[in-house]
Amino acid sequence: MTYEEHVNQEMTEVPAFFTIVNGLKNRRWRKILIFADDDPDGGTAATILIRTLKELGIEYSVDLPAPFELEGFRVKEWMATNRYDAIFCIDKGTCGYYDDFVAADRDFVIIDHHLFQGNPEKCIVYNPRKPCCTAYLCHRILTALGFRKEFDDFIALIGLRADWSIRPHTF
Predict the structure, then answer these.
(1) Is 11 exposed, middle or buried (0-12, 13-18, 19+ CB in 10 A)?
(2) 62 within 8 A of 90, measured Cβ to Cβ
(3) Helix, coil or strand: residue 62
(4) Partners of residue 86 on adjacent β-strands
(5) N or C terminus: fewer CB in 10 A for the chain?
(6) Is 124 helix (H, G, I), strand (E, B) or coil?
(7) Cβ atoms within 10 A of the Cβ of 15, count?
(8) Are the C-beta atoms of 117 and 93 separated by less than 8 Å?
(9) In this structure, are residues 84 and 31 in contact, taking their beta carbons and an 8 Å threshold?
């Protein structure tokens, strides 16, 4: 099975993956706030996601706060001055309290590879619960949308190698 075939299979087997890919393709979210971890995996995952959003013409803002888990005050600060259709939380854990950041007019999308810390039920959660990195997961989204280039493979590989070198305990 080729990589592209595997990605296409995931479209039918992983509801969150399907929701994210189709949400981006159909411009469900016109303005997205990205919170990404400040480590190499979070940075490379954000790079791949930003390239995806640029390809689609979707407006975005990015914040790479230092603490691993996303803090509520950061979300409130951004929301006080801006309106976003979605918040994408990239490589910052899969935490149950992230449900608090979902609003009637705003989705909260988690793209992550870490063990769950609680069970976010209101969020769109793309976390395969197996060893990988978030840059790889964003690479799969980019591939499903048909935007993959050789450079993206390299960026995803950097995220994978750096994440496992720096924090090998992350799964």
Answers:
(1) middle
(2) no
(3) strand
(4) 32, 107
(5) N
(6) strand
(7) 12
(8) yes
(9) yes
Q: Does the structure show a pLDDT above 80 at 167?
A: no
pLDDT tens-place string over residues 72-85? 999 999 999 999 99
CB 29 within 8 A of CB 57: no
Supply 5's token pair: 């075939």
Structure tokens at 118: 């609680």
Kind of pairing, strands 86-90 and 107-111? Answer: parallel
* Residue 161 to residue 154: CA distance in whole angstroms: 11
Sequence-ordered list of residues with C-beta below 8 angstroms from that of 93, at least 6 positions apart, any chain: 68, 69, 70, 112, 114, 117
Q: Where are the beta strands (DSSP E) in 19-64?
A: 31-36, 59-63
pLDDT of residue 161: 83
What confidence score (pLDDT) does residue 132 get? Answer: 87
Which residues are 62's β-sheet partners? Answer: 34
Mean per-residue pLDDT, 103-121: 94
Inter-residue contact 39 to 92 (CB < 8 Å): no
User: Please, is 50 exposed, middle or buried when counting C-beta atoms within 10 Å of its C-beta (0-12, 13-18, 19+)?
Assistant: middle
Taking the whole predicted model, whether its pTM rises above 0.85 is answered as yes
